[in-house]
Specification:
This protein is α/β, with parallel strands linked by helices. It folds into two domains: 9-208 and 321-407, 3-Layer(aba) Sandwich (Rossmann fold), CATH 3.40.50; 240-314, no CATH class. The chain has helices spanning 18-28, 56-62, 75-84, 99-103, 107-113, 138-144, 147-155, 166-189, 199-206, 210-215, 250-260, 264-267, 274-279, 281-292, 298-305, 318-322, 325-330, 371-379, 383-391, 401-407; strands spanning 9-12, 32-37, 66-69, 90-93, 118-123, 193-198, 232-234, 240-243, 312-314, 333-337, 343-347. Strands 3-2-1-4-5-6 form a six-stranded parallel sheet, with helices on both faces. A three-stranded antiparallel sheet has the order 7-8-9. Strands 10-11 form a two-stranded antiparallel sheet. Strand 7 and strand 8 (240-243) form a beta hairpin. Helix 1 crosses helix 8 (166-189) and helix 8 (166-189) packs across helix 9 (199-206). The two termini are 41 Å apart.
């Protein structure tokens, strides 16, 4: 079956995470995505661990892309890039605001060579404001945008950084939506479009508690937003289960009492009304923990508590989820060949169309792997011209050590 975006060509200048996610998803939807790296490559290629010389971190969000490497700081390199732009539908970039202008490949210049080009720009704080020039990694945005403080406050602990880069991943998803909307607008107007997405605003958008935070109120009594009220408790076998229940609310307390057959708890003055239960949450949780510790399976805990709104989820690692029937049935993970048979397992994209195809192309390129193919196909460069470009360091590549060894 055909993929939805199979008629599109994307030039992906992005590095690290927020931008490459957008490019990976466009590729999964069928677009031909050409990753354009500088001579020093994408920073995430350097991240450990490595599998056959490749970083799984890099692979997860760059699988399926063709990889070329051009020195855009050279006049000849910029000229080559601008020659590619008329063939493209989308250019993605996540430089700091102003860098594209200094390179001479800003949106106005791109439109001169391709009036219908869509440019998706990702940055930490957005363009044309007092913080535009400020650098941004996910941990910095989490700190500035209220996530780190809120998590620490709600967990009653010192602030610390989350291992996941939520700001990056959410921004990549917002960038995908933005460029698809720009494409739809182009279909109506015939005109190209620049759309920019900031990590800070993306982080605020996905913070489901942001509006509550803005009230300045943090009520402890009642049906509250957020997931930190759901206890995580140990099973008899030593594993853990997460329960989507707030046992201080009237319904949550009732479910607990009925499941445990403990009507005496209703008479306990510590738990008589919701205010008392909030004050004595820790003691009430310990009682529930003793009950949960009699089960070996999360499904049995869920069945014992009863109501459909209460979910008992076993705490698993990513590899453990990958071994479940669900993951196999859904095809939730894909093996990507490093180039000589070793595999890096990455998550599949989440879409399943009824009458179309989607999903990651299970390949990953080294820096500059597709230089010759892409530049000869689109620009008609001869082998001799490509040799000259390599000798002048306008284009470059870095094959894995095993590939170079096999060529010798």
């Amino acid at each position: 079956m055909e993929k939805p975006l199979s008629d599109l060509l994307v030039l992906d200048l992005t590095r690290a995470l927020a931008g490459p996610i957008c490019g990976r998803l466009l590729s999964d939807l069928g677009a031909r995505v050409i990753k354009v790296e500088p001579p020093d490559g994408d920073l995430t290629r350097l991240l450990v661990p490595r599998v056959d010389g490749l970083s799984p971190y890099f692979t997860q969000y760059n699988a399926g892309k063709e990889c070329i490497s051009i020195d855009l700081h050279s006049e000849h390199g910029r000229d080559i890039f601008l020659q590619l732009v008329p063939h493209a539908d989308i250019v993605l970039e996540n430089y700091r605001p102003g860098v594209m202008e200094r390179l001479g490949i800003d949106f106005d210049r791109l439109q001169e060579v391709n009036p219908k080009i869509i440019m998706g720009s990702v940055s930490g704080w957005g363009h044309d404001n007092s913080r535009s020039g400020q650098g941004a990694f996910a941990s910095a945005i989490h700190s500035e945008a209220g996530v780190t403080e809120m998590v620490a406050r709600r967990r009653d602990e010192e602030p610390r950084n989350d291992p996941m880069s939520h700001s990056d991943t959410c921004t990549g998803l917002h960038a995908l939506g933005a460029v698809l909307a720009a494409l739809h607008l182009r279909d109506r107007t015939g005109n190209g479009q620049k759309v920019e997405v900031s990590m800070a605003e993306s982080t605020l958008m996905v913070n489901d508690l942001a509006a509550i935070e803005m009230t300045g109120q943090d009520p402890m009594v009642g049906f509250k937003g957020g997931q930190n009220w759901s206890p995580v408790l140990r099973l008899a076998n030593g594993r853990y289960v997460s329960l989507t229940i707030d046992i201080t609310t009237n319904d949550g307390f009732r479910y607990m009492v009925e499941a445990m057959n403990r009507p005496d708890l209703v008479e306990d003055p510590r738990f008589a009304v919701i205010e008392n239960r909030v004050e004595n949450r820790e003691a009430l949780t310990e009682i529930l923990a003793e009950f949960v510790a009699t089960f070996d399976d999360a499904r049995d805990v869920e069945a014992a508590i009863g109501p459909g709104g209460v979910i008992a989820a076993e705490v698993r690692s990513v590899p453990e989820l990958a071994e479940t029937d669900w993951a196999r049935e859904r095809g939730a993970f894909v093996d990507v060949d490093t180039g000589r048979g070793e595999m890096i397992t990455i998550p599949q994209s989440p879409w399943r169309f009824r009458d179309a195809d989607a999903g990651v192309k299970p390949s990953v390129g080294y820096r500059g792997e597709n230089n010759r193919q892409v530049l000869s196909e689109f620009l008609g460069f001869s082998p001799e011209e490509l040799d000259d470009l390599e000798n002048d360091a306008v284009i470059s590549s870095r094959p894995p050590r095993w590939s170079k060894d096999s060529d010798s």
